[in-house]
Amino acid sequence: MSPQHFDTNETRSPEEREADLFARLPKVVAEAKAKARGWQAHLQNVDPNAVIDRAALADLPVLRKSSLLEAQTQTPPFGGYATVDAAGFKRLFMSPGPIWEPQPAGNDAWKGARALFAAGVRAGDLVHNALSYHMTPGGFIMDYSARALGCTVFPAGIGNTDLQVQAMAALRPTAYTGTPDYLKVILDRAAEQGVDLSFLRLGLVSGGALYPSLREEYARRGVTVSQCYATADLGMIAYETEAMEGMVVNEDMIVEIVRPGTGEPVEPGDVGELVVTTLSTEYPLIRFATGDLSAVLPGQSPCGRTNMRIKGWMGRADQRTKVKGMFVDPAQIARVEASHEGVLKARLTVLRRDEQDHMELLVETSEQTEGLDEQLRAALREHTGLAGSVKLVKPGSLPNDGKVISDERPLDA
Question: Following DSSP, what letter does each residue of 324-341 receive, concatenated?
Fold first, then answer.
């Protein structure tokens, strides 16, 4: 560790990092295919030794949480996507779905120590961890991360606010970890009771949005709060640094941004679904779709960390929408796009007209050939089973917000 960075991996050249990740990935893919039936079926036509760069990775199918849930239901607990039996893991967790997740191996099991370091936490600090330890791994993610950094942890969990205030007053923690909103609940309750918590100076939050107004309020109260992006299945994906310019992607992960409903990478800077590949050999997740929207930021962080930066959480990619009693999925719109070479981008808008649902497909194209709108109308009906209108627009006309389906019907419709 240096005063500024957790380790030298954070400041290595992007080329060195990329070469390291893709030198390790073929072994992960090979072991997954050799030892896990789910991966054998999912990657049946994939040559592990060929997955040596991002272009090759982008040819692999995406694994969606809905598919994993279905597989786990049929073959509990891990659906054939773990290379070891359940007894080979230290803990098993259950997230809503239910989705089952194993505890990864290692002292810093979910790779979150560097996120705490970036937030200003250091070895010897006492961390008040107010994430749940019940069934889901949230509390354990921060607990293991803090202890791997050399901190002491108070496992506060959630709720019992009066006792949380009492514990803080007695133990005088340096840092808080938990959801963005709950820290305010604790600070407000302490103020009501006349309890001084001014020793608390740092926070690392996850599990919700840290709105600018709330961050500013914490700063006024003497607490510098950063946010990170973590999930139960993947662990720590990205985190803020002192530069406060997006989130730096964690080491040992490969992050892609793809067009929702597809596995196709978007252009740099475009909003899309965040897809992650881990390098775990016990529970590998290869092109795992998070269902969350984000975008890559250009350049490198002023803090000196050289890994890819993302904008953070920008909404959900699952835009599946019911129209006239039938679900329309982004994957269906992607197939309409792919049906004609001249289509650059498409967006389905769902409206109410004359007390009925109406679909309008907006299509960016540089080649507005005669009859293209009719052909796309036919493709829309073919792939969705529903009729709709088509409007051809100039390239760059559609918003860069990751939306493939925009439901613009009135809420009371």
Answer: TTEEE-HHHHHHHHHT-T
